[in-house]
What we know:
With 509 residues, the protein is an alpha/beta fold. It has helices at 4-12, 16-23, 57-63, 98-116, 119-122, 141-154, 174-182, 197-202, 209-222, 240-252, 270-276, 286-302, 322-325, 355-363, 379-390, 396-403, 408-420, 435-439, 441-454, 473-487, 499-505, and strands spanning 48-51, 72-79, 81-82, 94-95, 126-133, 157-167, 187-193, 226-233, 257-262, 306-307, 312-314, 331-336, 341-344, 347-351, 369-374, 393-394, 424-427, 430-433. Pfam families: Radical_SAM (PF04055). Residues 67-297 form the Radical SAM core domain.
Amino acid sequence: MFDPDLLQKRLATLEQKDRELIMGLTRPPDTYESFADMRGYHQYTKRRRVMPGYDSQPMMDWLLSQKPSNNLRKIYIHFPFCRSRCLYCGFFMGFNRPEKVKNYLSALLREIRQKAKEPWVRSAPFHCVYLGGGTPSDLEPDQLRLLLDTVRENLPLANDCEITLEGRLKGFDKERRQAAIESGVNRFSFGVQSFDTQVRKQMGRKLAREELLEALKEITDQGKALVIVDLIYGLPDQDMDVWQRDLDDLLQSGVDGASGYMLRTAVNNPLEKAVRANLLPAEADLPQRGRMYARLRKTLLAAGWKRLNMTHWGRNSRERCLYDSESFSDTDMVGLGCAAHGQVNGFGAINFPILNGYLSLIERGKWPVFFCTQSPPEYRAYFDVADQTGMRMISFERFRQKFGLDLEPVLGWLTDQWQKIGLLTPDQHRMVMSGPGEFWQPNLSQAMIDCLDLASPDFDMELIDNMDFRKNRRRFNRSWFERQKELSPNLDVSVPGPGLAEAKRTPRP
């Protein structure tokens, strides 16, 4: 399945800069500077489209008729609208307009009721529900009640089901909060990003520091639901002093948990455009972001907070972070709403990502699925790479026990290199990440997946221009699906691309 000699042969054909994206720098000036760039990991390299986007109806019928696995079961509900756009955000889909929200909510409720009738959905309880976006906390109180009550009345939820509402504190008034709690929400997740007033307002956030802390205190003092906040490090004008004040404010805020994310901007993202036009100062460089991560880690560990995964921390035992803490390879999920992703017994299903297309399919009584994906049996090993590094460790013994795969001959040389530069430390039958290793976790995960790809005889080397090829996702997807069509001539593997522009105007029947 994986050939170590083939891996080394293919690695030798890569340019040095591309090999260093896998191995790291041989002599980095600092362990937090072990790589030239931060990468995103993508464990879906071997997934393929099993049916084209508009003809996935029978596939969804089949998936939702299956018996459930023993996996943790999740529900993700997507609300795609926001009242304003934050400069750093890559998830913005549209502004909150009353008529749009009304039409979308009507379609979403139909999808919930439609899927609730299916055997796979009905046959076992769900352990967590996450209402994300967008800004779902902007829903009116009666809309929140209607949506959440529809979920509870139609979908089987475990007695201890974690129900999270994502949003922002501005506009989340007492009436909305009461509606959410009375309808079952037991966890709020607020995007704070920074407590500093100047940093916040530059990013499009509305509340000042004092207003933010007061709003958090009001909710935490009530004690009826957990409160989690997101912080971002590396924002413009967020130097180390500002970041330390952010962490101090976090510790004093009384929240039950927090997430710390490194700022990552895409080309032509509004923030990137503003910096390029000299409208804002540049964000922190990568070495500085590494130092900011180190400060985050040191501060929260010293305060007795418990790490739940690579980004999430809990102040107390109430915070489980169930939606994000469990491994992806042992999870099933139903996705509800425009652009929502789901996973059923190893198959992926992605809802239509364009609002008009989603609404049209729901109106016609169709599954709003854009396309489904399937993977060969070894895909679980790819997921487990991400799962293990997400737990801050690498264990070849675990690969052997779970999958019967001996990956040490394939990846052992790589983990040895990472030990030499201080990213990993041996610990019995596993290797544990150091602080810098945690910071570079996306690189470690992606590097191992790259090596498994390169060690696979069926991997198409023509896909690789350089080891950043996954950043050009459209080219990668198109080449990959064209290759799949050659391998499976009877399989229609049409690819999303220019056709999306047409779909915006007229959803294909």
